[in-house]
Amino acid sequence: MARQMIIGMHLGNGYGALPGAWRMPGVDPTSYTSFDAKVRQAQAAERGKLQFLFLPDGPSALSAEIEYEAPGFNLDVMMTLAAVARGTERIGMVATGSTTFNEPFNLARQFKALDIMSHGRAGWNAITSAGDDVAANYGVRIPSSADRYGRAHEVVQIVQALWGSWSKDAWVHDQASGQFAKSAEIAPINLGGKFVASRGPLYIPPSEQGQPVVFHAGGASANALALAGRYASAVIGAAFTIEDARAQRAAFRDAAERAGRDPDEIKFIPGLMTTIAPDKRAALDRRITLTERAFPQRAAYLQQMLGVRIDPARMGEPLSPDQLAAARPSSGDPRSTYALKIAREGWTLRDILAHGVIDYQPVVAGPPVEVADHMQHWFEAEAADGFWVAPDVYRDGLDDFVDGVVPILQQRGLFHLDYAGMTLRDHLGAPAQYGIDPRIMP
Ligand SMILES: Cc1cc2nc3c(=O)[nH]c(=O)nc-3n(C[C@H](O)[C@H](O)[C@H](O)COP(=O)(O)O)c2cc1C
Protein backbone atom coordinates (compact mmCIF):
# COMPACT_ATOMS: atom_id res chain seq x y z
CA MET A 1 0.00 0.00 0.00
CA ALA A 2 1.21 3.53 -0.74
CA ARG A 3 2.68 5.45 2.17
CA GLN A 4 -0.02 7.38 4.07
CA MET A 5 0.32 10.30 6.43
CA ILE A 6 0.00 10.35 10.21
CA ILE A 7 -1.99 13.24 11.66
CA GLY A 8 -1.98 14.40 15.26
CA MET A 9 -3.95 17.20 16.83
CA HIS A 10 -2.62 19.75 19.25
CA LEU A 11 -4.68 19.73 22.45
CA GLY A 12 -3.67 22.74 24.48
CA ASN A 13 -5.55 25.10 26.73
CA GLY A 14 -9.09 24.20 25.66
CA TYR A 15 -9.59 27.20 23.33
CA GLY A 16 -7.24 26.89 20.36
CA ALA A 17 -3.76 27.74 19.17
CA LEU A 18 -4.24 31.49 18.70
CA PRO A 19 -4.34 33.95 21.57
CA GLY A 20 -7.77 35.40 20.79
CA ALA A 21 -9.45 31.97 20.65
CA TRP A 22 -10.94 32.23 24.14
CA ARG A 23 -12.98 35.28 23.13
CA MET A 24 -14.40 33.98 19.84
CA PRO A 25 -18.21 33.81 19.49
CA GLY A 26 -19.58 30.51 20.74
CA VAL A 27 -16.46 29.61 22.74
CA ASP A 28 -17.09 28.80 26.39
CA PRO A 29 -14.66 31.10 28.22
CA THR A 30 -14.24 28.50 30.97
CA SER A 31 -13.00 25.79 28.58
CA TYR A 32 -9.56 26.16 30.17
CA THR A 33 -10.78 24.33 33.27
CA SER A 34 -13.35 22.14 31.54
CA PHE A 35 -12.43 18.49 31.12
CA ASP A 36 -15.69 18.03 29.19
CA ALA A 37 -14.50 20.57 26.61
CA LYS A 38 -11.25 18.65 26.12
CA VAL A 39 -13.07 15.33 25.83
CA ARG A 40 -15.35 16.83 23.16
CA GLN A 41 -12.32 18.12 21.25
CA ALA A 42 -10.65 14.72 21.44
CA GLN A 43 -13.85 13.07 20.20
CA ALA A 44 -13.92 15.42 17.20
CA ALA A 45 -10.33 14.47 16.34
CA GLU A 46 -11.24 10.81 16.69
CA ARG A 47 -14.19 11.28 14.34
CA GLY A 48 -11.60 12.43 11.79
CA LYS A 49 -9.58 9.22 12.43
CA LEU A 50 -6.57 11.23 13.55
CA GLN A 51 -3.84 9.00 14.92
CA PHE A 52 -3.01 10.96 18.04
CA LEU A 53 -3.51 13.98 20.27
CA PHE A 54 -0.43 15.96 21.26
CA LEU A 55 -0.38 17.71 24.63
CA PRO A 56 2.58 20.03 25.10
CA ASP A 57 3.57 20.94 28.63
CA GLY A 58 5.93 23.47 30.27
CA PRO A 59 5.45 24.16 32.99
CA SER A 60 6.93 27.53 32.22
CA ALA A 61 6.35 30.87 33.91
CA LEU A 62 2.97 32.51 33.69
CA SER A 63 3.02 34.65 30.56
CA ALA A 64 3.27 38.41 30.90
CA GLU A 65 0.14 38.49 28.71
CA ILE A 66 -2.03 36.74 31.31
CA GLU A 67 -4.05 39.93 31.63
CA TYR A 68 -5.43 39.26 28.11
CA GLU A 69 -4.41 35.76 27.07
CA ALA A 70 -5.01 32.24 28.37
CA PRO A 71 -2.00 30.12 29.36
CA GLY A 72 -0.85 27.91 26.49
CA PHE A 73 -0.86 24.61 28.36
CA ASN A 74 -3.30 22.16 29.88
CA LEU A 75 -4.09 22.28 33.59
CA ASP A 76 -2.40 18.90 33.88
CA VAL A 77 -1.70 16.72 30.87
CA MET A 78 -2.06 13.35 32.58
CA MET A 79 -5.33 14.21 34.32
CA THR A 80 -6.71 15.59 31.08
CA LEU A 81 -5.82 12.38 29.28
CA ALA A 82 -7.35 10.25 32.02
CA ALA A 83 -10.64 11.98 31.21
CA VAL A 84 -10.04 11.76 27.45
CA ALA A 85 -9.24 8.04 27.71
CA ARG A 86 -12.72 7.40 29.10
CA GLY A 87 -14.42 9.47 26.40
CA THR A 88 -12.65 8.03 23.34
CA GLU A 89 -11.85 4.57 21.99
CA ARG A 90 -9.19 4.65 19.30
CA ILE A 91 -7.20 7.88 19.16
CA GLY A 92 -3.64 7.84 20.57
CA MET A 93 -2.77 10.21 23.40
CA VAL A 94 0.71 11.72 23.59
CA ALA A 95 1.60 13.84 26.59
CA THR A 96 4.79 15.71 27.32
CA GLY A 97 6.73 14.59 30.38
CA SER A 98 9.99 16.34 31.22
CA THR A 99 13.05 14.15 31.70
CA THR A 100 14.69 17.06 33.51
CA PHE A 101 12.18 17.59 36.32
CA ASN A 102 10.61 14.17 36.88
CA GLU A 103 11.86 10.99 38.48
CA PRO A 104 11.77 8.00 36.12
CA PHE A 105 9.67 5.95 38.54
CA ASN A 106 6.91 8.59 38.53
CA LEU A 107 6.96 8.90 34.74
CA ALA A 108 6.95 5.14 34.24
CA ARG A 109 4.03 4.68 36.58
CA GLN A 110 1.85 7.49 35.26
CA PHE A 111 2.33 6.75 31.58
CA LYS A 112 1.84 3.03 32.00
CA ALA A 113 -1.29 3.58 34.06
CA LEU A 114 -2.61 5.78 31.25
CA ASP A 115 -1.64 3.09 28.76
CA ILE A 116 -3.70 0.55 30.68
CA MET A 117 -6.66 2.91 31.14
CA SER A 118 -6.72 3.65 27.41
CA HIS A 119 -6.13 0.05 26.25
CA GLY A 120 -2.75 0.76 24.70
CA ARG A 121 -3.10 4.29 23.37
CA ALA A 122 -0.51 6.24 25.40
CA GLY A 123 2.60 7.97 24.14
CA TRP A 124 5.26 9.83 26.11
CA ASN A 125 6.82 12.96 24.62
CA ALA A 126 10.20 12.70 26.35
CA ILE A 127 11.76 16.15 26.26
CA THR A 128 14.44 17.99 28.17
CA SER A 129 13.19 21.19 29.78
CA ALA A 130 14.91 24.38 28.73
CA GLY A 131 14.49 27.75 30.41
CA ASP A 132 15.19 29.20 33.81
CA ASP A 133 11.51 29.99 34.29
CA VAL A 134 10.68 26.28 34.25
CA ALA A 135 13.59 25.46 36.56
CA ALA A 136 12.46 28.17 38.99
CA ASN A 137 9.19 26.30 39.50
CA TYR A 138 11.28 23.45 40.88
CA GLY A 139 13.50 25.72 42.94
CA VAL A 140 16.65 25.12 40.89
CA ARG A 141 18.68 26.58 38.01
CA ILE A 142 18.42 25.00 34.58
CA PRO A 143 21.19 22.39 34.15
CA SER A 144 23.65 22.55 31.26
CA SER A 145 22.62 20.97 27.97
CA ALA A 146 25.09 18.11 28.54
CA ASP A 147 23.57 17.36 31.94
CA ARG A 148 19.98 17.68 30.69
CA TYR A 149 20.59 15.26 27.85
CA GLY A 150 22.75 12.97 30.00
CA ARG A 151 19.86 12.72 32.45
CA ALA A 152 17.37 12.27 29.59
CA HIS A 153 19.16 9.15 28.30
CA GLU A 154 19.15 7.62 31.78
CA VAL A 155 15.51 8.53 32.43
CA VAL A 156 14.26 7.05 29.15
CA GLN A 157 16.20 3.82 29.67
CA ILE A 158 15.00 3.40 33.24
CA VAL A 159 11.41 4.21 32.32
CA GLN A 160 11.47 1.63 29.55
CA ALA A 161 13.09 -0.94 31.83
CA LEU A 162 10.41 -0.32 34.46
CA TRP A 163 7.71 -0.69 31.83
CA GLY A 164 9.09 -4.15 31.09
CA SER A 165 9.44 -5.22 34.71
CA TRP A 166 6.44 -7.55 34.46
CA SER A 167 7.00 -10.14 31.74
CA LYS A 168 4.31 -10.24 29.09
CA ASP A 169 2.39 -13.11 30.68
CA ALA A 170 3.20 -12.40 34.32
CA TRP A 171 -0.36 -11.36 35.12
CA VAL A 172 -2.44 -14.53 35.44
CA HIS A 173 -5.51 -13.31 37.41
CA ASP A 174 -6.94 -16.85 37.38
CA GLN A 175 -9.81 -16.99 39.85
CA ALA A 176 -10.09 -20.77 39.60
CA SER A 177 -6.49 -21.54 40.51
CA GLY A 178 -6.15 -18.53 42.77
CA GLN A 179 -2.96 -17.35 41.08
CA PHE A 180 -2.92 -13.58 40.68
CA ALA A 181 0.54 -13.13 39.13
CA LYS A 182 3.72 -15.13 38.47
CA SER A 183 6.15 -13.57 40.89
CA ALA A 184 9.06 -15.25 39.13
CA GLU A 185 8.21 -13.19 36.05
CA ILE A 186 8.21 -9.84 37.82
CA ALA A 187 11.76 -8.57 38.15
CA PRO A 188 13.26 -5.57 39.87
CA ILE A 189 15.21 -3.28 37.60
CA ASN A 190 18.13 -2.04 39.68
CA LEU A 191 19.31 0.46 37.13
CA GLY A 192 21.19 3.58 38.00
CA GLY A 193 23.54 6.05 36.43
CA LYS A 194 25.06 9.42 37.09
CA PHE A 195 21.75 11.25 37.44
CA VAL A 196 18.90 8.88 38.33
CA ALA A 197 18.23 5.38 39.55
CA SER A 198 15.38 3.03 40.33
CA ARG A 199 15.12 -0.35 41.93
CA GLY A 200 11.67 -1.28 40.69
CA PRO A 201 9.74 -3.27 39.79
CA LEU A 202 6.71 -1.33 38.71
CA TYR A 203 3.44 -2.96 39.70
CA ILE A 204 1.69 -2.60 36.36
CA PRO A 205 1.27 -5.40 33.80
CA PRO A 206 1.58 -4.88 30.01
CA SER A 207 -1.10 -3.03 28.09
CA GLU A 208 -2.56 -4.07 24.74
CA GLN A 209 0.43 -2.38 23.07
CA GLY A 210 2.89 -3.67 25.66
CA GLN A 211 4.16 -0.27 26.73
CA PRO A 212 3.69 3.39 25.72
CA VAL A 213 5.32 4.78 22.58
CA VAL A 214 8.21 7.24 23.02
CA PHE A 215 8.01 10.54 21.15
CA HIS A 216 10.41 13.46 21.23
CA ALA A 217 9.61 17.10 20.44
CA GLY A 218 12.40 19.36 19.37
CA GLY A 219 14.73 20.67 16.72
CA ALA A 220 17.61 18.78 15.20
CA SER A 221 20.36 19.78 17.65
CA ALA A 222 23.12 17.19 18.01
CA ASN A 223 21.88 16.24 21.48
CA ALA A 224 18.25 15.98 20.38
CA LEU A 225 19.24 13.82 17.39
CA ALA A 226 21.17 11.44 19.62
CA LEU A 227 18.24 11.13 22.04
CA ALA A 228 15.47 10.77 19.48
CA GLY A 229 17.60 8.61 17.19
CA ARG A 230 17.95 6.02 19.93
CA TYR A 231 14.51 5.93 21.50
CA ALA A 232 11.80 7.87 19.64
CA SER A 233 9.22 6.35 17.35
CA ALA A 234 8.11 9.83 16.29
CA VAL A 235 9.45 13.37 16.43
CA ILE A 236 7.09 16.29 16.92
CA GLY A 237 8.95 18.90 14.90
CA ALA A 238 8.90 22.55 14.00
CA ALA A 239 9.98 23.50 10.48
CA PHE A 240 8.91 26.66 8.75
CA THR A 241 10.12 25.77 5.26
CA ILE A 242 9.88 22.58 3.26
CA GLU A 243 13.68 22.56 2.82
CA ASP A 244 14.21 22.76 6.57
CA ALA A 245 11.67 19.99 7.15
CA ARG A 246 13.40 17.72 4.61
CA ALA A 247 16.77 18.35 6.21
CA GLN A 248 15.42 17.67 9.72
CA ARG A 249 13.62 14.53 8.64
CA ALA A 250 16.79 13.23 6.98
CA ALA A 251 18.83 14.10 10.09
CA PHE A 252 16.48 12.20 12.42
CA ARG A 253 16.44 9.21 10.06
CA ASP A 254 20.26 9.20 9.95
CA ALA A 255 20.35 9.41 13.74
CA ALA A 256 18.08 6.36 14.02
CA GLU A 257 20.30 4.48 11.61
CA ARG A 258 23.41 5.41 13.61
CA ALA A 259 21.67 3.96 16.68
CA GLY A 260 21.28 0.65 14.84
CA ARG A 261 17.63 1.11 13.94
CA ASP A 262 15.71 1.06 10.67
CA PRO A 263 15.18 4.74 9.67
CA ASP A 264 11.51 4.00 8.96
CA GLU A 265 11.09 3.41 12.70
CA ILE A 266 11.22 7.18 13.34
CA LYS A 267 8.49 9.37 11.91
CA PHE A 268 9.09 13.09 11.46
CA ILE A 269 5.92 15.06 12.17
CA PRO A 270 6.22 18.85 11.77
CA GLY A 271 3.52 21.28 12.88
CA LEU A 272 0.90 23.14 10.89
CA MET A 273 -1.42 25.92 12.07
CA THR A 274 -4.74 26.13 10.32
CA THR A 275 -7.30 28.85 9.83
CA ILE A 276 -10.02 27.43 7.65
CA ALA A 277 -12.60 29.66 5.98
CA PRO A 278 -14.46 29.68 2.64
CA ASP A 279 -11.83 31.90 1.01
CA LYS A 280 -8.49 33.59 1.64
CA ARG A 281 -10.04 36.97 2.60
CA ALA A 282 -12.31 35.43 5.21
CA ALA A 283 -9.40 33.40 6.61
CA LEU A 284 -7.15 36.45 6.89
CA ASP A 285 -9.92 38.43 8.59
CA ARG A 286 -10.39 35.61 11.08
CA ARG A 287 -6.67 35.60 11.87
CA ILE A 288 -6.72 39.38 12.26
CA THR A 289 -9.49 39.07 14.85
CA LEU A 290 -7.53 36.35 16.66
CA THR A 291 -4.07 37.93 16.70
CA GLU A 292 -4.31 41.67 16.09
CA ARG A 293 -3.29 42.60 19.63
CA ALA A 294 0.22 41.38 18.85
CA PHE A 295 0.55 43.19 15.52
CA PRO A 296 2.42 46.35 16.69
CA GLN A 297 5.07 44.15 18.31
CA ARG A 298 5.16 41.87 15.27
CA ALA A 299 5.54 44.82 12.91
CA ALA A 300 8.68 45.75 14.84
CA TYR A 301 9.98 42.24 14.37
CA LEU A 302 9.09 42.23 10.67
CA GLN A 303 11.25 45.34 10.35
CA GLN A 304 14.24 43.27 11.57
CA MET A 305 13.35 40.36 9.29
CA LEU A 306 13.27 42.56 6.20
CA GLY A 307 15.90 45.16 7.17
CA VAL A 308 13.71 48.18 6.37
CA ARG A 309 11.87 50.71 8.52
CA ILE A 310 8.21 49.78 8.96
CA ASP A 311 5.67 52.13 10.50
CA PRO A 312 3.24 50.14 12.72
CA ALA A 313 0.75 53.01 12.40
CA ARG A 314 0.29 52.14 8.69
CA MET A 315 -1.33 48.75 9.21
CA GLY A 316 -3.78 49.29 6.34
CA GLU A 317 -1.13 50.02 3.69
CA PRO A 318 1.15 47.78 1.67
CA LEU A 319 4.92 48.33 1.88
CA SER A 320 6.00 51.08 -0.51
CA PRO A 321 8.00 50.34 -3.68
CA ASP A 322 11.05 51.91 -1.96
CA GLN A 323 10.65 49.67 1.09
CA LEU A 324 10.24 46.59 -1.11
CA ALA A 325 13.28 47.50 -3.19
CA ALA A 326 15.43 47.96 -0.08
CA ALA A 327 14.15 44.87 1.76
CA ARG A 328 16.63 42.02 2.34
CA PRO A 329 15.50 38.82 4.08
CA SER A 330 17.43 38.27 7.31
CA SER A 331 19.66 35.20 7.16
CA GLY A 332 19.05 34.73 10.89
CA ASP A 333 15.37 33.87 10.47
CA PRO A 334 14.24 31.29 7.90
CA ARG A 335 10.77 32.88 7.83
CA SER A 336 12.13 36.10 6.28
CA THR A 337 12.14 34.92 2.66
CA TYR A 338 8.49 33.95 2.91
CA ALA A 339 7.65 37.25 4.63
CA LEU A 340 9.24 39.16 1.75
CA LYS A 341 7.42 37.04 -0.83
CA ILE A 342 4.07 37.87 0.81
CA ALA A 343 4.99 41.56 1.12
CA ARG A 344 5.84 41.67 -2.62
CA GLU A 345 2.38 40.32 -3.45
CA GLY A 346 1.09 43.74 -2.35
CA TRP A 347 -0.80 42.82 0.83
CA THR A 348 -1.27 45.45 3.52
CA LEU A 349 0.96 45.30 6.59
CA ARG A 350 -1.98 43.90 8.57
CA ASP A 351 -2.54 41.17 5.98
CA ILE A 352 1.16 40.32 5.77
CA LEU A 353 1.12 39.62 9.50
CA ALA A 354 -2.21 37.78 9.22
CA HIS A 355 -0.55 35.35 6.78
CA GLY A 356 1.40 34.06 9.78
CA VAL A 357 4.84 35.08 8.56
CA ILE A 358 6.00 35.36 12.20
CA ASP A 359 4.24 32.32 13.65
CA TYR A 360 6.22 29.39 15.03
CA GLN A 361 4.73 26.87 12.62
CA PRO A 362 3.73 27.22 8.97
CA VAL A 363 0.25 28.72 8.71
CA VAL A 364 -2.32 27.85 6.10
CA ALA A 365 -5.16 30.36 6.07
CA GLY A 366 -7.74 29.58 3.43
CA PRO A 367 -10.23 26.96 2.24
CA PRO A 368 -9.76 23.27 3.16
CA VAL A 369 -8.23 22.41 -0.21
CA GLU A 370 -5.30 24.74 0.49
CA VAL A 371 -4.56 22.93 3.73
CA ALA A 372 -4.73 19.57 1.94
CA ASP A 373 -2.46 20.85 -0.85
CA HIS A 374 0.14 22.04 1.67
CA MET A 375 0.10 18.67 3.44
CA GLN A 376 0.32 16.72 0.19
CA HIS A 377 3.18 18.86 -1.10
CA TRP A 378 5.31 18.38 2.04
CA PHE A 379 4.40 14.73 2.40
CA GLU A 380 5.25 13.83 -1.19
CA ALA A 381 8.50 15.82 -1.01
CA GLU A 382 9.54 13.58 1.91
CA ALA A 383 9.62 16.58 4.21
CA ALA A 384 7.14 14.94 6.60
CA ASP A 385 5.66 11.59 7.55
CA GLY A 386 2.62 13.45 8.80
CA PHE A 387 1.66 16.60 10.69
CA TRP A 388 0.55 17.78 14.07
CA VAL A 389 -2.19 20.26 13.40
CA ALA A 390 -2.96 23.23 15.60
CA PRO A 391 -6.38 24.67 14.72
CA ASP A 392 -6.75 28.38 15.48
CA VAL A 393 -9.97 27.85 17.50
CA TYR A 394 -10.98 24.34 18.53
CA ARG A 395 -14.71 25.02 18.63
CA ASP A 396 -15.12 25.25 14.85
CA GLY A 397 -11.55 25.03 13.50
CA LEU A 398 -11.29 21.42 14.54
CA ASP A 399 -14.55 20.41 12.85
CA ASP A 400 -13.54 22.35 9.73
CA PHE A 401 -10.33 20.32 9.59
CA VAL A 402 -12.06 17.01 10.23
CA ASP A 403 -15.00 17.61 7.89
CA GLY A 404 -13.19 19.70 5.26
CA VAL A 405 -9.55 18.64 4.99
CA VAL A 406 -9.62 14.99 6.04
CA PRO A 407 -12.06 13.87 3.27
CA ILE A 408 -9.88 15.54 0.61
CA LEU A 409 -6.79 13.74 1.90
CA GLN A 410 -8.75 10.47 1.99
CA GLN A 411 -10.01 10.94 -1.58
CA ARG A 412 -6.43 11.50 -2.67
CA GLY A 413 -5.37 8.26 -0.97
CA LEU A 414 -3.06 10.16 1.39
CA PHE A 415 -4.85 9.40 4.65
CA HIS A 416 -6.46 6.22 5.96
CA LEU A 417 -10.23 5.81 5.83
CA ASP A 418 -10.40 4.30 9.29
CA TYR A 419 -8.22 3.01 12.10
CA ALA A 420 -6.82 -0.39 11.15
CA GLY A 421 -5.85 -1.31 14.72
CA MET A 422 -6.68 -0.39 18.28
CA THR A 423 -3.39 0.86 19.76
CA LEU A 424 -1.15 3.85 19.19
CA ARG A 425 1.59 1.47 18.03
CA ASP A 426 -0.87 0.13 15.42
CA HIS A 427 -1.75 3.66 14.26
CA LEU A 428 1.91 4.65 13.85
CA GLY A 429 3.16 1.34 12.49
CA ALA A 430 5.61 1.41 15.41
CA PRO A 431 7.36 -1.91 16.02
CA ALA A 432 6.47 -3.89 19.12
CA GLN A 433 8.73 -3.20 22.08
CA TYR A 434 8.64 -4.32 25.66
CA GLY A 435 11.20 -3.12 28.17
CA ILE A 436 14.37 -1.50 26.85
CA ASP A 437 15.03 -2.00 23.14
CA PRO A 438 17.62 -4.82 23.20
CA ARG A 439 19.58 -3.03 20.49
CA ILE A 440 20.15 -0.15 22.92
CA MET A 441 21.02 -1.87 26.18
CA PRO A 442 22.67 0.43 28.73
C1 LIG B 1 7.37 21.31 18.07
C2 LIG B 1 8.04 21.38 19.40
C3 LIG B 1 7.32 21.08 20.53
C4 LIG B 1 7.90 21.17 21.80
N1 LIG B 1 7.16 20.87 22.89
C5 LIG B 1 7.70 21.02 24.11
C6 LIG B 1 6.93 20.81 25.27
O1 LIG B 1 5.75 20.44 25.20
N2 LIG B 1 7.51 21.03 26.49
C7 LIG B 1 8.81 21.44 26.60
O2 LIG B 1 9.27 21.61 27.72
N3 LIG B 1 9.58 21.62 25.51
C8 LIG B 1 9.05 21.45 24.28
N4 LIG B 1 9.82 21.67 23.18
C9 LIG B 1 11.21 22.12 23.37
C10 LIG B 1 12.23 21.02 23.16
O3 LIG B 1 11.97 19.88 23.89
C11 LIG B 1 13.64 21.48 23.52
O4 LIG B 1 13.74 21.85 24.85
C12 LIG B 1 14.04 22.64 22.71
O5 LIG B 1 13.83 22.32 21.37
C13 LIG B 1 15.52 23.00 22.96
O6 LIG B 1 16.32 21.92 22.59
P1 LIG B 1 17.88 21.89 22.84
O7 LIG B 1 18.08 21.86 24.32
O8 LIG B 1 18.35 20.62 22.18
O9 LIG B 1 18.44 23.10 22.20
C14 LIG B 1 9.25 21.57 21.92
C15 LIG B 1 10.00 21.85 20.76
C16 LIG B 1 9.41 21.75 19.52
C17 LIG B 1 10.22 22.06 18.30
From TrEMBL:
One of its GO terms (molecular function) is monooxygenase activity. The keyword Hydrolase does not apply. Coiled coil: none annotated. FMN binds at residues 57, 96, 149, 221. This is FMN-dependent oxidoreductase (Nitrilotriacetate monooxygenase family). It comes from the Bacteria. InterPro entries: Diverse_substr_monoxygenases, Luciferase-like_dom, Luciferase-like_sf, NTA_MOA. Belongs to the NtaA/SnaA/DszA monooxygenase family. Transmembrane segments: none annotated. Signal peptide: none annotated. It holds the Pfam family Bac_luciferase. Keywords: Flavoprotein, FMN, Monooxygenase, Oxidoreductase. Residues 27-381 form the Luciferase-like domain.
